[in-house]
Amino acid sequence: MLNMDRRICNITELLDKYYRENGRKLHEKVDKILSDFGGITKKDYDDFYSIANEVFVDVLKKYDASQNFDSFLFSCLSNKIKTEITKRNRIKRLSEKNTISLDMPVGENETALSELLVSDFSMEKELKLEENFFMEERIQTYFAGLSDLQSRMLELKMDNIPKKQILKILNITEKIYENNFKQLRSYEKTNVLNFGQLLKSEKLLKRSNKKEIEEEKQMAAQTSEISKNTSYSIAAYIKRLHKYSIRGDHPLQRNSNQWSNIQKYNLITTVLNKYPIPEIILAEQVKADRTENWLIDGKQRLTNLSDFEENLFKIGKNAERPIIQYQVVLKDENGIVLLDKDGSPQYENRKFDVRGKYYSELPEELKERFNDYTIPAVQYLSCSDDDIEYHIRRYNASKPMTAAQKGMTHLGEQYAKVVKKVTQHPFFKNKADFRISEFVNGTVDRVVTESIMVINFLYDWKKKQEDICAYLKENVKISQFDSFEKMLDRLSEVISEDISDMFNSKDAFLWFGLFYEFSKLNLDDECFIEFMREFKKSLHAKKSGNLSYDILCMKGTKDRASVIDKLTLMEALMNEFLHIENGKSEKVLIVENNMLKKYIVEFDNTEIIKSVNIKPKNSIIRTAILTLMTVCGQKEFSDSNIQKFIQSKKDRHEEIEDTLLYLDCLNSWTLEVNSNCAIFQKENIPVLVKMIQYVYKNEMEEDIAIKWFAGFVDNFEIDGGFPEKNEEKYKKMINSFHQYFKYIKSRENEEK
């Protein structure tokens, strides 16, 4: 009820915010979106305001409080308006048989092109647009080919300035005016406006069936358009990044600020010198409610360009080619352009040293040059998650991803997000010994994946980060990340400053792995800190046999044998320090009975046990024996009782067959359930098998049992998981099953 009240309150606030003053806030968002399109007349605005009202209501229904409402609304509005404009353009093209009037407005004052370029040159056909985007691009190209004087003349014409006034403002003769307008109307200039190649076949143009046209266009896009080439100015890229119409925050992508200062400085001087830089790579991903354009390659370039434009850094003294040459138009004291004897504007060549300068300190001409600098882009269309993962890895293979960053691209988006979340745990920033750069370059990400690996899959350890991530992608469970975060919570409570440096980029994963083993001993966490303190002081050099931790570290490797050796030695030293008898709480089990040996092998090869991934061998043996003991009706599971059971010569063939049968049934029961659930851990296998034994022995209906089990798994963590003792676990399952069974039977009786 409280949540409902809070939601109603939020909706009320949003309605007041956007519809105050006759919807001013909502209309401003529409105006901002429409400003990116040409050919929108003022009479169309009311239509788009009405559309915005519909979108607003729909967004309120879908809105999740975890989202930013303003951003979500803007994204939905933008998509809807773009779709509507595309639809209108398509209808207009069909009705006009692919012609357009010269009365199409251009510029802020909506001046028609026919008024700007009066000549025999027919612009009706040439300004036929496939999409408004192409008009913008072509017109920008057209303007880019003009001289400064010609550009200024057109700007004044677009502002409806009369010819006589233009002559006076620019201080030019009528002859110069006519000569330049002749050039504006020339084929070489206007040819860039030729859209003839965009037109489809005559067959398509003559069709009137819109559905047929749309299907053909969609098919063509699916079969032929894998990517498209385009380009944007720096100003346009920055705008799109800020509006999130280009997304630079994909979880598999590196963070920004990867470049050194000298790389940043040289990027800026390259742009100001008008040298080309590599193209930007984008990937379009179509989702249910929106389309995302992910930045695949070029994030460092664009973010550094944006930072410079926002005055976040100045160009250093070691920048290459810092002396920038440029031209300025000479003017008199009244701001009138000075002309030479031929009536052409006079220019002056200047040089500017950009070293030590922020963007705001550049001459206006260089600011314009920076903003207008065009960077080509390749956009891959209709990409899947796997496509994006592949492109990120492919385009970063040449540089300069660190091994940790490259490895993360093998983890998959789902688990990459989880890792990024874990790295934000206060332990890493406030308690451990990690530099800021190690959060940026992926080192902390690596430590998390190594820690998950060493805790849960030690005997499958991989040396390379990419191999670790690829393995985790296929085998890890969300619950294992949750358990790791709980460990971080515990360590955060007890870690002291004198040993915090031991949790570093090199050794942290070993200490996390050791703490996991320590947590099984049911001792106070302060005991672990005491051991770490003593280890740092002296135990690192203490030999066990012929080896010490220092000697093992001299090898400097992260191969499987080395990691296992280090952890084994560290655990032995810890147990000795803490006076733990028998090392691990699990006593080593020796099985000599051939019948049991065969059973253990078959147990380990069942599908359900493979999915649980029990390591090491002693744990497999223990789990197999405990499961068999449970089926046999045993209730005491001390080490001595387990050893007695192993040494017993009693024939267990029948019980072994039953146990293996129940394991196969358990595998069938789990086919349609969440495999990441914490219920599927080695310590729970015996009680799960016992539950199946109960169903079979009491001849319960298995289809009902399977449905119950699926619900039990779904609600397992919500209901608090399992109690500690097996008998209590079993009791919880039995009670839940009987309640469900009675419910199903009562419904069946009602239906009869």
Can you walk me through this structure?
Helix content is 58%, strand content 6%. The strands form three sheets. It has a four-stranded mixed sheet. A two-stranded antiparallel sheet has the order 1-2. Strands 6-7 form a two-stranded antiparallel ribbon. The two termini are 38 Å apart. The chain has five domains: 2-95; 105-198, no CATH class; 228-391, no CATH class; 407-577, no CATH class; 594-751, no CATH class. By secondary structure, it is α+β, with helices and mostly antiparallel strands. A hairpin with a 4-residue loop joins strand 4 (280-286) and strand 5. Mean pLDDT is 79; it is low at 93-136, 186-213 and 215-224. The longest helix is centred in the first third of the chain and has 33 residues, at 2-34. It is elongated.
Distance from first to last alpha carbon: 38 Å
Radius of gyration over all CA atoms, rounded: 35 Å
Task: Look at the structure and give the mean pLDDT.
Answer: 79
Helix content: 55-70%
Q: How many structural domains does the protein architecture include?
A: 5
- Strand segment count: 8
**Stretches with pLDDT under 50, minimum 5 residues:** 93-136, 186-213, 215-224
Approximately how much beta-strand content do the residues carry?
A: 5-15%
Physical arrangement of strands within the biggest beta sheet: 3-8-4-5
Oligomer type: single chain
Overall, the morphology is elongated
Q: Quickly count the helices.
A: 36
Structural class designation: alpha+beta
The main pleated sheet reads as: 4 strands, mixed
